[in-house]
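Shall we go through a protein fold together, starting from nothing but its sequence? Label the sequence line and the structure token line clearly, so we can match residues to local backbone shapes. Would you write everything just below, so we can both look at the same thing?
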Amino acid sequence: MLTKRFFKTKNEAEITFEFSHPDASKVELVAEFNDWQPISMKFNKKDKRFRLKHRLPTEKQFHFRYLIDGKSWDNDHNADGYAANGFGSENSIVDTQRLA
């Protein structure tokens, strides 16, 4: 799940990436905005979700995926869109365009 918060005085948005996986002990966000380097997501025991906040420039689209336990990939099932990647699957897309 993606939650977006836009700032009035900055051309950036704070994106909260949330992911739930029943058997995962570790989930990492892997995205083009950080050169596809895994970033560990924090586990919240209350709602059993992995969460990470990251600021991104507005008016752009970024591809990303979740890496579960360092071995399997999954997409955000509530992403803004999906695009084919070079590995025979799809990437999730987060869109930081401000809506009027």
